[in-house]
């Protein structure tokens, strides 16, 4: 197998991006056209990213934090004294009471990407008029399981244990989760229509989902108009390439290493059957409607793009190359150079880049907070 030296590391020739595209592209076209188009377009810097729990949102948020800090942009930061310094709220939208004011050296906020419930009017009140709205969604049942295992205290709180824990919960969810049976706590539940809650569905729709199907669909259609893109976790790389094109960002801007990944180490010890999935579909019917709508929309958007799947393959290859470099940094050269291609200008990956890819959300947000508000606690 032939190998070549690339910027200080040995890379198998067969997996380099240009090698792949030479074999893929049998037709003749202007190879530098995507780069030329990007050069003529201005990158989007005003962004509202709805950070939905357990929907790859910390991974996406890291891209937003990197992008903003590299350009000295201003982020919306939680108010002083919040329980979690990286969470604005899990039960309400942005208000003057749960966020800090615009920093003295800034004239406006540029990016909102911390946990908070969506409300278009409230978001528009603090963000520029040209803000682009990005969201994320995940298969509802997988989202539910991920939430349960990411917050293991839920098992203790609901008094469900052993291989039948999930089944026991779904057989009588209101018995276990008091938030489902008391109206005023409905925005606190993590187990029923949680994604819909974070997308700001009105309480009356959450409590009467079967009787208000038309109103629910109308709200979803309104979200469709308001969000430029809703990332689908099950098609993550495709979503990110579309994100890159919509925001006119670079390949480097959408690089990632997965954050807060829940592998469900104990999943082999629990029993999950089709009845459980059916019960959960009935319990979280709005989440399923929401997910289905934006799943279909994603592929409609992709269908309109040129040479899209070729760029996805390129991105997967580059991302893996960068990830391998960062994981083996001490044994490699100090800089990895990704050569220019039809999808990207030339860029470099340094130790600083690797550090920013793997830094925890809390540490990253803390650094930004200290920079924006140096005299605050």
From TrEMBL:
Source organism, top-level taxon: Eukaryota
GO biological process: glycolipid biosynthetic process
Membrane topology: Single-pass type II membrane protein
Cellular localisation: Golgi apparatus membrane
UniProt-recorded Gene Ontology molecular function terms: galactosylceramide sulfotransferase activity
Pfam families xrefs: Gal-3-0_sulfotr
Keywords, in A-Z order: Glycoprotein, Golgi apparatus, Membrane, Signal-anchor, Transferase, Transmembrane, Transmembrane helix
Recorded coiled-coil stretches: none
Xref: InterPro entries: Gal-3-0_sulfotransfrase, P-loop_NTPase
E.C. no: 2.8.2.-
One GO term describing the cellular component: Golgi membrane
Family: Belongs to the galactose-3-O-sulfotransferase family.
Name listed for the protein in its UniProt record: GAL3ST2
Gene source species: Mytilus edulis (Blue mussel)
């Amino acid at each position: 197998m032939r190998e070549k030296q690339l910027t200080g590391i040995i890379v198998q020739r067969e997996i380099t991006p240009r090698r792949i595209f030479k074999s893929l592209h049998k037709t003749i076209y202007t190879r530098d056209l995507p780069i030329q188009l990007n050069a003529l377009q201005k990158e989007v810097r005003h962004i509202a990213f709805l950070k939905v729990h357990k929907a790859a949102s910390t991974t996406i948020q890291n891209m937003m934090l990197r992008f903003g800090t590299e350009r000295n942009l201003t982020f919306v930061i939680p108010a002083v004294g919040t329980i979690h310094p990286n969470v604005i709220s899990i039960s309400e939208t942005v208000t003057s009471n749960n966020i800090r004011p615009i920093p003295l050296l800034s004239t406006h906020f540029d990016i909102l990407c911390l946990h908070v419930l969506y409300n278009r009017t409230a978001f528009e009140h603090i963000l520029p008029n040209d803000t682009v709205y990005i969201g994320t969604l995940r298969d509802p049942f997988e989202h539910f399981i991920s939430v349960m295992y990411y917050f293991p205290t839920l098992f203790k709180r609901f008094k469900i244990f052993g291989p039948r824990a999930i089944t026991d919960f779904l057989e009588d969810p209101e018995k276990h989760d008091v938030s489902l049976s008391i109206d005023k706590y409905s925005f606190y539940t993590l187990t029923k229509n949680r994604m819909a809650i974070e997308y700001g569905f009105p309480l009356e729709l959450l409590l009467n989902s079967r009787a208000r199907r038309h109103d629910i669909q109308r709200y979803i259609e309104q979200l469709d108009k308001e969000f430029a893109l809703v990332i689908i976790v099950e098609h993550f790389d495709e979503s990110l390439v579309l994100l890159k094109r919509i925001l006119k960002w670079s390949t480097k801007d959408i690089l990632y290493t997965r954050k807060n990944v829940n592998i469900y180490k104990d999943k082999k010890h629990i029993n999950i059957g089709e009845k459980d999935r059916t019960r959960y579909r009935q319990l979280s019917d709005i989440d399923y409607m929401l997910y289905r709508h934006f799943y279909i929309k994603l592929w409609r958007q992709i269908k309109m793009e040129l040479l899209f799947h070729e760029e996805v393959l390129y991105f997967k290859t580059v991302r893996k190359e960068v990830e391998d470099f960062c994981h083996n940094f001490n044994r490699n050269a100090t800089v990895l150079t990704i050569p220019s291609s039809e999808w990207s200008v030339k860029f470099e990956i340094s130790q600083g880049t690797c550090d920013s890819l793997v830094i925890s959300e809390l540490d990253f947000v803390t650094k930004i907070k200290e920079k924006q508000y140096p005299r605050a606690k």
